[in-house]
Amino acid sequence: MKLLELLEKTDYTLLQGDINTEIKGLRYDSRKVEAGDCFICISGTARDAHDFIPDVVERGAAAVVVSKDVTVDPSVTVIKVVSDRLALANMSAAYFGYPAEKLVTIGITGTKGKTTTSYMVRNVLSMAGIKCGLIGTIETIIGDEHIPSSHSTPESYVLQETFAKMLEAGETHVVMEVSSQGLKMNRVGGIFFNIGVFTNLSPDHIGPNEHSDFNDYMLCKKKLFSMCETGLFNLDDEHASDMIKDAGCKVLTFGTGKSCDYRAEDIALTRSGITYHASGKKELDVEVDIPGRFTVYNSLTALAICDLLGVGDDAVKKGLAAVHVRGRVETVPVSDDFVIMVDYAHNEMSLRSVLTTLREYNPKRLVCVFGCGGNRSRDRRFTMGRVSGELADLTIITSDNPRFEEPKDIIADIESAIKEVPGAVYEIVEDRYEAIKYAVGHALPGDLILVAGKGHEDYQEIKGVKYHMDDVEMIKQAKEEIYGTHS
């Protein structure tokens, strides 16, 4: 492939060399460069790939793409761009033959609800006989292949490669989570989505190496709606009007208000989930076996998306009724006397939402086991501590992913907040397994226990190393230790 073809949709300046240079491969990791490759220099927070130009030249790179003034061996073609990440996105799309243009693309952004909604959409489309790939926080699904994820939205090269693999596997649709970081860092650059979705918005991912403030976070989310044909917006969210303002797409809304294009009425909580009647552009009775009022929004979003795609009512009903998502209000069987659930709630908004919902089921006690991640916004510890102190009858403060911080320091911050809540009851059990075991061992008949913060994650990150740790596995282990294998 000629360099000129790779640069088809990229604004650039040729600094030296031949624009018709033949390119064998596209790389953004200097360690993977081979003879004849084009290397794109990405200026990251931890390192600047421009520093590795001598290494890639030695490896035989035919061309380099830069965003800074550099000196490069005259035998190598040099292209200068304004945005290195946008160049990577556009060139990756060209390299793989613009695969996103051959798929029906659905992008979902928002603070919470992205993962569950994407699984709901895929489940409904599968019921309708439509082959749909999925890209998100838990995994990427291509046909029968499930690939664990490291980012909600992969780097643009990986994303375009994934689209190409989906086409090869016979997929016609893809539903994906579009994170604020994915938008900020142009991982979805050059993609025009058929449908873009806004679920909700609350402060999150604000801090060093993330977003400078809430406005930056919101503006990054908003970028999706300049990149899609039709936008679906949760009109019940307080930030909906800000997200809709100046949206460069057709606007449709969902929620519980009368003005919504897709609305949920007659909402009822069942023992294991919810039911409601969808009205507006779609009239349908809906039942979902996932507890919580947030399930109404997630499933209503999926219903609206699938209605826009022309999916029949039977597939919608069956697909929503049968969906389950790992680590999202996931019930783990332990005892007939009490219920224990695992959820990914890891910020103030999501924890408040899930605890408020579970309170509606009138448990004997609502018990919350949680910790907070290290090297992330410190404010999260205080807000989550206050929320749990206010809404749970008992909070068990433990460790999450301490990363490079000391667990006891994170726990101390959480405790300082929960102490300010009048009447709050809490215990501190630093070891996460021991905390779960404590919750199971001290459960009373009628209790509802929420183990929050990690959800689908199967690791704990300490000092740069990830150790295997799975909340569901630990709950089952605690059950065996306390009740025996035949309980």
The counted number of beta strands is 24
- Cα radius of gyration in angstroms: 24 Å
What oligomeric state is this?
A: single chain
**Which segments are poorly predicted (pLDDT under 50) over 5 or more consecutive residues?**
none
What share of residues is helical? Answer: 25-40%
Which fold name fills CATH's third level, the topology of the largest domain? UDP-N-acetylmuramoyl-L-alanine:D-glutamate ligase
Q: How many distinct folded domains?
A: 3
- Strand content is 15-25%
SSE-based structural type: alpha/beta
Structure description:
The structure is a single chain. The mean pLDDT is 94. The longest helix is centred in the middle third of the chain and has 16 residues, at 293-308. An eleven-stranded mixed beta sheet has the order 9-8-7-10-6-11-12-13-14-15-16, with helices on both faces. The protein has 15 helices and 24 strands. It folds into three domains: 3-93, MurE/MurF, N-terminal domain (Udp-n-acetylmuramoylalanyl-d-glutamate--2,6- Diaminopimelate Ligase, Chain: A, domain 1); 99-322, UDP-N-acetylmuramoyl-L-alanine:D-glutamate ligase (3-Layer(aba) Sandwich), CATH 3.40.1190; 330-483, Protein-Tyrosine Phosphatase, Chain A (Alpha-Beta Complex), CATH 3.90.190. The chain has helices at 3-6, 53-58, 84-95, 114-127, 156-168, 180-184, 214-222, 240-244, 293-308, 313-322, 348-359, 379-391, 407-418, 432-441, 471-483; strands spanning 13-16, 26-27, 38-40, 63-66, 77-80, 104-109, 132-135, 139-142, 145-148, 173-177, 193-198, 228-234, 250-255, 262-269, 274-280, 284-288, 330-331, 339-343, 366-370, 394-397, 426-428, 448-452, 459-462, 465-468. Helix 7 links the parallel strand 11 (193-198) and strand 12 (228-234). It is an alpha/beta fold and 487 residues long.
